[in-house]
Amino acid sequence: MSLPASVEGNERLRLFCALRLPPETAQGLAVWQRQAFAGVPDIRPLPPEHLHVTLAFLGHRPLEELDAILDALREVAARAKLPLLSVRGYRETRSVGMLTFDDADGRAAALATDLHERLAALGVYEPERRKWLPHVTVLRFRKRPGLRPVLPDLEPFMPSDAAAFLSRLRPSGAQYEVLESMAVGGR
Fold first, then answer.
1. 116 catalytic residue (yes or no)
2. CATH superfamily of this structure's domain 14-182
3. How far apart are CA 142 and CA 10, in angstroms?
4. Which of 17, 48, 69, 125 has the most beta carbons within 10 angstroms of its beta carbon?
5. 111 with 77: CB under 8 angstroms?
6. Distance between CA 63 and CA 15 in Å, rounded?
7. CB 176 within 8 A of CB 166
């Protein structure tokens, strides 16, 4: 893996691990976003290339931890059974709107739990106290709009792969860059 040219040897990287969406699922969500949120003020829909199912947000980590994090993600992805996700609902937190998903046979949750345990053992992640929820953040806002959109008519989908992302904060919003992606379940 080669790091982006702008990453220095002693830099702290803002990292997260996620399941990437198949292109047709991401495009379907982009069409739904345009329809469901057209004319809604003060929201920022995420572009299709930023839509993903977060497995673990690691925050700022030293560059020297990256290889071990990638190794853990590779091992978990190789051992996992390919998840099947289907839209369950929409919910808002104080700053994001998200679609939540049903996880057939709990495969995505098992993958996430395995990853959380491996990352915690490395000392690079502290698992959240609440149960992991498969979701895709679809919009961001400063003030909760209290939306109740019609849910997208998406077919159940299998993630295209798992990936480690570098997140760079910009005035226009975070920019994500895939550092490495890997097949899930030997797919």
1. no
2. Cyclic phosphodiesterase (3.90.1140.10)
3. 33
4. 17
5. yes
6. 10
7. yes
Q: Yes or no: say if 177 and 166 are a contact pair by the CB < 8 Å rule.
A: yes
Name the active-site residue from 50, 60, 116, 135.
Answer: 135
Per-residue pLDDT tens digits of the chain, which is 187 residues long: 555 544 555 678 999 999 999 999 999 999 999 999 999 999 999 999 999 999 999 999 999 999 999 999 999 999 999 999 999 999 999 999 999 999 999 999 999 999 999 999 999 999 989 999 999 999 999 999 999 999 999 999 999 899 999 999 888 778 999 999 999 986 5
Domain ranges (residues) in the chain: 14-182
